[in-house]
């Protein structure tokens, strides 16, 4: 099909995508279809999602075997004329087995519903434009990030993708960058209905949300599972930026006690909805406050919400899932722990998400964390590559156990900034990140 002339503004005319193929077909005995298919291998009709063997309404004992487009013949004829000459490399043994067949003409019409989104958009968009066919699915919503040059065509792009993805009812396009403290980006509906209330399933959990009010990223599904898999039943998890519960809910399903917090009141609302939806509300205690204040409230024995024993809450893991700024919140752990309370108890492991440029090393990420913590990380910390976000932007998870000197406020707050990076850091972290080496121990 040729490139369609561009309308201003672009309009999707579905009837322009009809194409009729004039094919040859063999009328063969119903019981011999597979034998003919094997004999004529390479000469039968082959297009994705289309069958090459078709029934005939008035001939119950025969079928039409569609032949490849390269096979042509001069009209309808019985076997006696040399139609078999179309099959250039076939032997007389093949010919002898085809004596009961009749060659006929068959017109096959392919309309708009047959063609893929990529095929349709290639014809609609100006030559040289990158065809957008990928998107993030959030329930019935498809989220796109269209390039500036495609914005004049956003509505027709949205309509095509809506037509070609039956499970999608709404197409949204991101407008600008995330600029608010709740990580919610501005978006516009470019096709479909405007209903942003949806439900997502991840592994064994269900999550309800309004995509316009809270943060959600379906591409982090495997990372959610990876981290939760490191938790053990009965452990206590503190989720400082919990969102609607992608870590908190599966951790609770595993048997962990979770203290989950988010600053966004709507995230807090959906977190409580999702704990009930997944029947783990007795294992998740939700809060809506600043992340630092949340941690201090759990660790401070004098705080009104610290009800889990004298001297504050004993917990095993803390999660900081706010990659743009989470490292800055690490300062809350400096001097936050009651030394008597944590005597002979292992200090918690922290899992902090962050972004880094391609040229930044694991050691650079560790150094940033040490600066925020106000002390040096000692041993056992790891940097895990989560995913590539953009051409020069990657997402990582830094995991480490809080050192005693930091936990009990015994370290020098300027020590980390003055510490030189150890030249003997293991696993090659002084070089650039290697995609194949996703996790490296850097302490």
UniProtKB/TrEMBL annotation:
Sorted UniProt keywords: Cytoplasm, Methyltransferase, Mitochondrion, Nucleus, S-adenosyl-L-methionine, Transferase, tRNA processing
Catalytic activity: guanosine(37) in tRNA + S-adenosyl-L-methionine = N(1)-methylguanosine(37) in tRNA + S-adenosyl-L-homocysteine + H(+)
Gene Ontology BP terms: mitochondrial tRNA methylation; tRNA N1-guanine methylation
A cellular-component GO term for this protein: mitochondrial matrix
E.C. numbers: 2.1.1.228
Cross-referenced PROSITE patterns: SAM_MT_TRM5_TYW2
InterPro entries membership: MeTrfase_TRM5/TYW2, SAM-dependent_MTases_sf, TRM5-TYW2-like_MTfase, TRM5/TYW2-like_N, tRNA_Gua_MeTrfase_euk
Positions that bind S-adenosyl-L-methionine: 224, 262-263, 290-291, 321
Molecular function terms, GO-annotated: tRNA (guanine(37)-N1)-methyltransferase activity
Pfam families: TRM5-TYW2_MTfase, TYW2_N_2
Annotated SAM-dependent methyltransferase TRM5/TYW2-type domain residues: 135-404
Localisation: Mitochondrion matrix; Nucleus; Cytoplasm
Family: Belongs to the class I-like SAM-binding methyltransferase superfamily. TRM5/TYW2 family.
Task performed by this protein: Specifically methylates the N1 position of guanosine-37 in various cytoplasmic and mitochondrial tRNAs. Methylation is not dependent on the nature of the nucleoside 5' of the target nucleoside. This is the first step in the biosynthesis of wybutosine (yW), a modified base adjacent to the anticodon of tRNAs and required for accurate decoding.
Self-association state and partner proteins as the record states: Monomer.
Protein's name according to its UniProt entry: tRNA (guanine(37)-N1)-methyltransferase
Organism, as annotated: Coccomyxa subellipsoidea (strain C-169) (Green microalga)
